[in-house]
Amino acid sequence: MTVEHIPVLARTLAERIALPPDGVMVDATVGHGGHSLLLGGALGPEAVIVGMDVDANAVQRAHAALKPLASKVILLHSNFSQVREQLQELGIGKVDLLLADLGLCSAQLEDAGFGLSFQANMPLDMRIDRRLKRTAADIVNKTDEESLANLIYQFGQDRASRRIARFIVQERQIEPITTTGRLSDIVCRALRKNRGNQRSRIHPATRTFQALRIAVNDELENLRKLLGSGPGLLNKNGYVAIISYHSLEDGLVKRDFITNAKAGIYRILTKKPIVPTREEIHENRRARSAKLRIAQRQ
């Protein structure tokens, strides 16, 4: 993967989070190491950065990127839903920052091995963690029409989910759907939209692809587990910071922060989510839908 990933809202994070020089930071989606590199620059040799990612290639990239840091860096090929267990194995009880950027990186979207893009023709896979068994092709070709429609509606929030599911089932009876290009074409036909001539800001297949990716990687349930770990892992005045990219993720984060704030556990530092500036979006178009929420342990 040669595409360079630009960390979203990294400088905003650095301005709003003050870690002790000997702090413990968990970057639960370490990616190519961009957030950890910037935040870790303020940490000393007694500090610890634990980076986690389900993408093994990203862990390798982060290993090279974070070598200049003075702090101890531990990188794990692991899902952030296991953060509590992983820290226990490392003998780490409390942390000063729990950070997660829930977005995909540019390299993942352009790597045919992941099968995520509706802009190019790739094998229909969508597993970010290659250890997972079920692919998007499995779901598309084996799920009954009603369940498929419900999945697209629940995770993709597409009101045309039943029509899309009906078209998918009709097409798979002719031939199994095994590529992202064919699935994208099917969705465009279902919505009566030409993929090559778009007036809408988003591609017609965006919501269907989002729904399948969420289902394949169990993204929302894993996020619930990560958020549930926060109160027990954070030191007093420690931070939890989550960058989300669609309303399903952001809604989970918002409700979790509010619940913990009402219980006297968190102090919410972002009454409204922080979004990228116009300049950042110009530099990195993938940042345009990002929303950052930060809470602090009381």
Protein architecture, described:
The chain is of the alpha/beta class and 298 residues long. The chain has 2 domains: 10-107 and 219-297, 3-Layer(aba) Sandwich (Rossmann fold), CATH 3.40.50; 112-217, DNA polymerase, domain 1 (Orthogonal Bundle), CATH 1.10.150.170. Helices cover 44% and strands 15% of the residues. The chain has 13 helices and 7 strands. Strands 3-2-1-4-5-7-6 form a 7-stranded mixed sheet, sandwiched between helices. β2 (48-53), α3 (56-65) and β3 form a beta-alpha-beta unit. The radius of gyration is 20 Å and the shape is elongated. 44% of the residues are buried. The mean pLDDT is 94.
CATH topology of the largest domain: Rossmann fold
Q: What is the strand tally? A: 7
Task: Identify low-pLDDT runs.
Answer: none
Strand arrangement, largest sheet? 3-2-1-4-5-7-6
Shape: elongated
Largest sheet: 7 strands, mixed
Order of helices and strands: HEHEHEHEHHHHHHHEHEHE
Mean pLDDT: 94
Tally of separate domains: 2
Question: Which class of secondary structure composition applies to the elements?
Answer: alpha/beta
Query: CATH homologous superfamily name of the largest domain?
Result: Vaccinia Virus protein VP39
Amount of helix = 40-55%
Strand content: 5-15%
Terminal residue distance:
41 Å
In the CATH scheme, the class of the largest domain would be: Alpha Beta
Q: Supply the CATH architecture of the largest domain.
A: 3-Layer(aba) Sandwich
Question: What is Rg?
Answer: 20 Å
- Count of helical stretches: 13
List strands and helices in order, with pairings.
Layout (H helix, E strand, L loop, with lengths): L9 H7 L7 E4 L6 H7 L7 E6 L2 H10 L6 E6 L5 H8 L4 E7 L4 H5 L25 H7 L2 H12 L4 H14 L5 H11 L15 H12 L1 H15 E11 L2 H16 L3 E3 L9 H6 L7 E7 L1
Parallel strand pairs: 1-2, 1-4, 2-3, 4-5
Antiparallel strand pairs: 5-7, 6-7
Helix pairs in contact: 1-2, 7-8, 7-10, 8-9, 11-12
